[in-house]
Write a structure and sequence with these properties.
Elements lengths: L4 E4 L17 E4 L20 E3 H14 L2 H11 L10 E3 H14 L8 H19 L10 H5 L2 H12 L7 E10 L2 E9 L5 H14 L2 E9 L8 E9 L7
Antiparallel strand pairs: 1-2, 3-4, 5-6, 6-8, 7-8
Amino acid sequence: MRDAGIKATGRTAASGKGGAPPVRVVVIVDRAVSSTESRHAEPRLENRPTVKGILFNLLEDVVVDAYDIDLWDRVIDRAGVHGSYSSVGRYDERELKALVGGLGELCSAARGASDGEMLKWFGVQAMVPLAERYPAFFEPHDHTVDFILTLNDVIHAEVLKLHPDAEVPTFQFSGVRRTGGVSSVTLHYTSGRMMCALAEGFTIGAAGRFGERATVRHRSCMLDGDTECRMDCTFERSAPNVDS
């Protein structure tokens, strides 16, 4: 058994551009990594909602970048999943939720956080590796709201070209407004996976990439029995840092 240590997150979704405040989590590593040979076999999907392997790859990127590979191995063991994911594969949504939940259990600062809060944290942090993998989705835009409005017609269309069996969520948009340095849009989200917290995190993380601060108010939620999740999103251009 190796000595316990403390390590904090390194990279944030804002990338130093003055976006949403970074999420800081501290992890205490207090035992040796279990052997990968003991991991569970890949489960049968049956009729469960699935997610593409790229999300698992992004989660691994986030954990390894913020902490280290040892923590990722521990998260896999805690979640009780097989731990090997192809970007083009399809996997039970419960595995992703189990991994995110396991991360929350192993991070001392996140203990007591809900699964939704951990999914949102993942979404915020994942925007950095996502932008690195798919820069073409981001480069044409200067503002978050313009990027978000491409979700159905551009981003999801391109995802389906790469992964024809992907189950992408459906977004509708209303109330688009632009006034000075402030823009807003209402997102209407529906998905059998009901991972609206992840979508909220992606939205906040995207704002950081465009140097904006996001405020998201969840007005209705499928997890509460509503027919859709409705999120009112406001984006405000952050003031540039000025040397004193």
